[in-house]
Design a protein that fits this description.
alpha+beta, globular, single chain, 12 strands, 33% strand, 7-stranded mixed beta sheet, BirA Bifunctional Protein, domain 2
C-alpha cells in the first residue's frame, strides 16, 4: 500500500464519508483523506448521530482504493491505526479495539471501555464498476460526550488542534504499515473484546433485537464474533452491539 495520501480539508461539511464517496464516483481515486473541522450530518452505526464541537476532534474519512478483500478489512486496518496513533500522544490513555468497530480505553484504566473512536465503512462503486471502501473515523481528541473518553484531557483549543493534527498524521502513516496478509491476525490480537464476558444485542435495528450473554472466545476471518453462552453453545454473530461486562465474583 502506498504511504502517499492526499488530504482534503473542509471547515464544515455534512459528512466526510458522503463527500469522499461522491469524489470517488466522480472519478477520483487513490489514497485520499477528507478531514473536517465540523460535520452537520455525521453518523455512526445504525444511523446514530455523531456530533462534536468544531475543531477539537478528528473527523476524517479515508478512501481505500481499490477495495480490500474482504472489504471489512478496511475497518480492521483503520482501528489498528487509531490505536497506534493514540499510543504516540503523551498522556493519552492506552486504547484497544472493541468489536465490531470501536476503539475504547483499555482495561486497567479508570475509564476502561469508554469509547474513544468509532469507525464506519461504506463500499462504493463508480459507473465503471470499480469498487473502493470509504472508512469514516470519528476520534475524540479534545472533547467527548458523556460516557466517552478523549485522548487529550487538558489544554486550550489550540493545543487540542495540534493533537488532532498529530493523530491525523499518525493514523495515515499507520494505516499503510500493516501488510494485507497480516491485518486479520493483528486485528484478532488487538481485539480487547476477546476473553471478556459480553452481552451482545444482535441485529441491525430493523427487527426486534435479541441479546446473547457469554464469553467472547474468537473472531473469524469474516469478522463474525464467536460467543460461548452459559449453556456452552457457540454463537457466530455478524451484526450486533457489544457491552463488555464486569467480571463477577
Amino acid at each position: 500500500m502506498s504511504a502517499s495520501w492526499r488530504v482534503v480539508h473542509r471547515a464544515s461539511t455534512g459528512s466526510t464519508n458522503d463527500d469522499l464517496a461522491a469524489m470517488f464516483r466522480a472519478g477520483e481515486g487513490g489514497r485520499i483523506a477528507v478531514v473536517a473541522d465540523h460535520q452537520s450530518a455525521g453518523r455512526g452505526r445504525r444511523m446514530r448521530v455523531w456530533e462534536a464541537p468544531a475543531g477539537v476532534n478528528l473527523l476524517m474519512s479515508l478512501l481505500i482504493d481499490p477495495a480490500p478483500e474482504p472489504p471489512h478489512a478496511a475497518v480492521w486496518r483503520a482501528g489498528l491505526a487509531i490505536v497506534s496513533a493514540a499510543a504516540q500522544i503523551p498522556g493519552a490513555p492506552a486504547c484497544t479495539l472493541k468489536w465490531p468497530n470501536d476503539v475504547v480505553v483499555a482495561s486497567g484504566h479508570r475509564d476502561a471501555d469508554a469509547k474513544v473512536a468509532g469507525i464506519l465503512s461504506t463500499l462504493v462503486a463508480d459507473d465503471r464498476g470499480r469498487q473502493a471502501v470509504v472508512v469514516g473515523c470519528g476520534i475524540n481528541v479534545g472533547w467527548a460526550p458523556d460516557g466517552g473518553a478523549r485522548l487529550s484531557s487538558e489544554g486550550s483549543d489550540a493545543d487540542h488542534a495540534a493533537v488532532v493534527r498529530s493523530v491525523r498524521d499518525g493514523l495515515l502513516a499507520a494505516v499503510d504499515t500493516v501488510a494485507d496478509d497480516e491485518v486479520y491476525a493483528m486485528y484478532r490480537a488487538g481485539l480487547g473484546t476477546l476473553g471478556r464476558r459480553v452481552r451482545v444485542t444482535i441485529g441491525d435495528g430493523s427487527n426486534p433485537d435479541t441479546a446473547i450473554e457469554g464469553r467472547a472466545v474468537d473472531v473469524d476471518a469474516d469478522g463474525r464474533l464467536v460467543v460461548l453462552d452459559d449453556c456452552a453453545i457457540s454463537h457466530r454473530i455478524d451484526v450486533g452491539d457489544v457491552i463488555h461486562l464486569r467480571p463477577t465474583t
